[in-house]
Amino acid sequence: MSETTSYAVEARGLTRKFGDFVAVDHISFVVEPGEIFGFLGPNGSGKTTTIRMLLGLIRPTEGEARALGIDIVRKPEAIARRVGYMSQKFSLYPDLTADENLTFYGRAYGLRGRALKRRKDEVLALTGLTRHRQRLTTNLAGGWQQRLALAAAILHQPELLFLDEPTAGVDPVSRRNFWRLLYNLAAQKTTIFVTTHYMDEAEQCHRLAFIHRGRLIAMGPPGEIKRDRMQGQVVEIICVQPQIGIRVLREVGIPEVALYGKRIHAAGPGLENRLGAIENLLEKAGAGPQTLRIIPPSLEDVFIANVKDNNKQ
User: Fold this and answer.
1) Are the beta carbons of 264 and 257 closer than 8 angstroms?
2) CA 252 to CA 254: how far, in whole Å?
3) N or C, fewer C-beta in 10 Å, the chain?
């Protein structure tokens, strides 16, 4: 890897082992300045371990990486003041007010006096917390606590922001509002590296990387991934007895079958020519088919298909 880079993040062969367990397995990717880069995968897939390596908190077993051009192994201490980090676990002090928490974190980043007051006012206004600044953190609702954690993470105006499943456990409305804040930050040229397992959030990223069992299995803009990484078509099926429908579809060898609420998604090559035959099979089995139609693949369809392909390797 060259000594200079135009990327906000650059990783080559990044690997982390814990004994015989490979948590992150030779992954390579880049993050462009000013983009929202989504790291998508289930719990235990290696997302948090990757972030901790990029922050210089743990050393890679193999490979190399740079954050803002800084070598994560040689100069980890130089990364801290130029990046922000919002961990998966809420880490602010519950017995302090919102304002007191920001004062504590601001001073930890070297802010003092008027500069600290100005930045507190700015981040409280940005996150909509101004009227809550004197409330105890423990008394804030979950969505407001997430906003406060974000305010603390951006207080020192980091160039690069790492968010590890920032909206886990909060309600859908709070999640949407939180993502509006992220787009505001990206518009101000902050690079955002965010991990998530919510597909609707992944759709809002400029680019995505799918990670499964420590390996990258797909990468690119959401639309491009859905176009290029799905083999065949997706059929949405509504039937009276969906569990019977799922069993029948799997028995006839359709590669991907999953239940989304009350709808079945069946995916595979050539399904557009089998709709009539599939409907007859479901009817004979007592599934009670009502509608069958070809639909564009969702990110979840694509992710499931790519995970299964990866498991076969």
Assistant:
1) yes
2) 6
3) C
- pTM tops 0.85, yes or no: yes
Tell me the two tokens of residue 98.
Answer: 């919102």
AA identity, residue 276: G
Q: Does domain 9-220 have CATH number 3.30.1300.10?
A: no
Cβ atoms of 206 and 37 within 8 Å: the answer is: yes
Condensed to tens digits (0 to 9), the pLDDT of residues 47-84 reads: 999 999 999 999 999 999 999 999 999 998 899 889 99
Q: Is residue 271 within 8 Å of residue 309, measured between CB atoms?
A: no
Span 166-183, pLDDT tens digits: 988 788 888 888 999 999
Long-range Cβ pairs for the range 165-173 (8 Å, 24+): 165/47, 165/88, 165/195, 165/196, 165/197, 166/86, 166/194, 167/196, 167/198, 167/201, 168/88, 169/142, 170/142, 170/143, 170/146, 171/142, 171/143, 173/143
Q: Which of 213, 209, 214 is nearest to 24 (CA)?
A: 214
First to last CA, the chain: 29
Contact 167, 196 (CB under 8 A): yes
Residues of the chain with CATH 3.40.50.300: 9-220
Reported residue count of the chain is 313
Q: Are 167 and 195 contacting, i.e. CB atoms less than 8 angstroms apart?
A: no
Rounded CA separation 85/180 (Å):
18
